[in-house]
Design goal:
The protein has about 160 residues and is an alpha+beta fold. The chain contains 6 helices and 3 strands. The chain has a single domain (about 15-150), classed as Sufe protein. Chain: A (Alpha-Beta Complex). It is about 40% helix and about 10% strand. It starts with 13 loop residues before the first helix and ends in a 6-residue tail after the last helix.
Length: about 160
């Protein structure tokens, strides 16, 4: 039973769909290289979070120490209009950093509704399930789940 081939990305937000399409267009070794590029592209934390690590939550399902938090930008009425994502992962954990980089580039700045609409199995669409251990894939799925849980706890628009 072959679960993946080229999967339909139309249900994904545009930036995330483009990333998934990029991964799907590559061979497995090239996908790993692209993941490393995302690792190198993960933005550093702003000073306010570096100085207050207690504001971040550890994703314990990840093999390497990964911490994340979200912030929102509100507009009229005080309901969140966009979500900003922040990740902290050690440089010596390129797979974990790469997954965080994919999620950052694909989800940062989106509305809460757009993030909540991302399918829970999105990490599988990257086509890395044979190249990356199941435990590491579970870590990326947990990162997405943690982001969605934090977003779902935000005040909702009426």
């Amino acid at each position: 039973m072959r679960k993946l081939g080229v999967m339909n990305t139309s249900a994904l937000p545009a930036a995330l769909a483009e990333i998934v399409d990029d991964f799907q267009a590559l061979t497995e070794p090239e996908r790993l290289q692209l993941l490393l590029e995302f690792s190198r592209g993960l933005p550093e934390l702003p000073d306010r979070l570096m100085e207050h690590p207690e504001m971040m939550e550890q994703v314990v399902e990840c093999q390497s120490p990964l911490f994340l938090t979200i912030e929102t930008e509100q507009h009229d009425g005080g309901t969140p209009q966009s979500v900003r994502l922040f990740f902290k992962a050690p440089p010596e954990a390129p797979t974990t950093r790469g997954f965080a980089g994919v999620l950052h580039e694909g989800l940062d700045g989106l509305s809460p509704a757009e993030i909540l609409a991302v399918p829970d199995d999105m990490p599988e669409l990257l086509g890395l399930t044979r190249a990356i251990t199941p435990l590491r894939m579970r870590g990326m799925t947990a990162m997405l789940g943690r982001i969605k849980r934090k977003v779902s706890a935000l005040p909702q628009q009426s």
